[in-house]
Prior knowledge:
Mean pLDDT of chain A: 83
Helix content of chain B: over 70%
Shape of chain B: rod-shaped
Oligomer: heterodimer
Distance between the termini of chain A: 49 Å
Number of helices of chain B: 4
Largest sheet of chain A: none
Radius of gyration of chain B: 33 Å
Helix content of chain A: 55-70%
Distance between the termini of chain B: 71 Å
Number of helices of chain A: 8
Low-confidence stretches of chain A: 95-100
Structural class of chain A: mainly alpha
Number of strands of chain A: 0
Low-confidence stretches of chain B: none
Number of strands of chain B: 0
Amino acid sequence: MSPERFIDLIRAEQESLRRFLLALCSGDESLADDIAQDALVRAYVASGSFLGLSKFSTWLFRIAYNCYVDYHRKPRMETVSSDSQQALSIPATDETDAGFKYQRLYQALGSLQEKEKATIILHYFEDRSIKEISSILQIPQGTVKYYLSTGRNHLKSILQ
Amino acid sequence: MKNIDIESILRDNRPQLQDNPTFLLEVEQKMRAVEGIKNEVDRQRRYGRTAVIIALLAGLIVGALAMSLAYLYPVNPSKINDSIISDIRMFMDIYKNYLLLPIAGCAISLSLILGRQKVFI
């Protein structure tokens, strides 16, 4: 795939991809953008292996989610607080809190387990179907439904 | 927050992205860097492959020449003197049947390398 064609394809997807990662990273925009760029470069390197068996955006989101998981698996030198703690530390001003109108919701999301959180974000923030989520997270559709249900219940119990 | 409708809360509170006009530019820069590395790796690989192919071709040609010489000009032991050339001719005459082995090895390796790659050199 030529760089121009690839850029054209990602231009349409970048906003949705960045928003997905922003929610996963509990509002840490610079981290979300770093992971998004890493994912896009990885996708470009692997673009020759994209066979078109799934939608381009599904394939891109799968790579982005794997990059996010890789980032969180990597041991870091400094002690990094958890996502929900990061969300708490973001001051609630108009400038810095543009993505966090509903701070408690994002704190609650941060307390879900990773796949549960990703499922909720993809379904409710990105309007992805169960089938697409199943393909992105590489889990069966039944498991996606289970995560949606348990995720909603967990969020309810945290927010009530 | 009793009896909250979690679905509408989620849908009404999608994260709002801040504009980042440099985002795609940075991605393009990184892609260009990756492209540069890929080209360099490809160049090195092609260089290595070319060297192997040349070595194998040389082996094939020199081996074929040596075999032809050994068969066309058999050594007459009575005319052998002590020079190195004579020693080599003597060696080739004795082992001329085995010269086919390295030649076949070169030919098989060449055909494997050329058969596997779309473009070489």
